[in-house]
Amino acid sequence: MTVASAWKDARFWIIGSVIVTLVAIAAWLNHPRVSPLILALQNGSQSPELFELPNGVNEFDLLLIDGVYYFAQDNKTTTELRSAKSLKDLAVAKSYTPVPDGRYPSIQYESGIWHLWLWLSEKSATQHFTSSKFEGPYTSTDTLPANLADIHVRKARNGQYFAVYKDLGKGAQLAAGLLTARSLDGPWHDLGHIFENDRDAWHASEEADPAFFESSGRSYVSFAGWSGTDHSQNQKLGMVEVDPETGKAIGKATILLEASKPWHIKNNQRKLFNPVFLCDQFRSRMFFAQNVSAAGIPAGWGFIDANTPCQG
To answer: What CATH number belongs to 35-309?
Structure first.
């Protein structure tokens, strides 16, 4: 073999290797990767049960503002509002019921105004209320689109507002979706369902209690997934990264937690739901409740600690 022919063969080998490497890098860059936060929560430490309430904690929302926890929770009949300087003190804090028939709450505080979203069954829609005080009284302002339940509202760092929902519409299979607006008063634009053609079996029949949040510049939706079989045994906490521009999932959802501890399975219901992320004392935590699927049975809530710091 001459030097020229050897160099020719070497060039082809080098060029071929470079092409293969570039293709591999491109595939790696384009392949959805599970975020560090999702992995940290999936492998995080679990708190003990924080406390029980007589009818369960059920669907809730939680904010931490200037060292005070603000807690809105569904008691199977209406929504109760409580505030305290520690999580344990929420159990004994005075409760307020500002809207008798309002269910499945979400809360926000902005520019001296409290915002409260509650599902009203007679309207089959979520109503937006405002007040200058957390405990109320609250005034009705606007109504979100019909048949979108489990509304959870948060503000993104870019000033955009997101309202994640569970779609009760015909043929929607209780899928989670996202609304977006430039104001808490709307108008709301529907980005559609988060998962278009990529719902794994464990959440193919329901994505309950979805919640939107941001962390370290990335956007997420957490939810409680149900496969559609044996509803008493397999409601799991899940989470997925989403594209805030399109409202669509980036890759598949990850199971964060399945019921395993005694307080997770009261009333023989192996069901966890309502995951809400909170930067709690600079700790990344996902709070959740046990779903007893009945009134009159005490049940509680807890959290997963990602054991990673956050800014909030």
So the answer is: 2.115.10.20
pTM above 0.85, yes or no: yes
pLDDT tens-digit readout, 152-208? 999 998 899 999 999 999 888 999 999 999 999 999 999 999 998 778 999 999 999
**Rounded Cα distance, 280 and 241, in Å:** 20
Convert 196-223 to b/e letters by CB count within 10 Å (16 or more is b): eeebeebbbbbbbbbbbbbbeebbbbbb
**Residue 88, φ and ψ in degrees, nearest 5:** -65, -30
Going from N- to C-terminal start, the domains of the chain cover: 1-31, 35-309
Angle at 155 between CA 154 and CA 156, to 5 degrees: 120
- Which distant-in-sequence residues (6+ apart) come within 8 Å of 154 by Cβ? 108, 161, 162, 211, 212, 213, 214
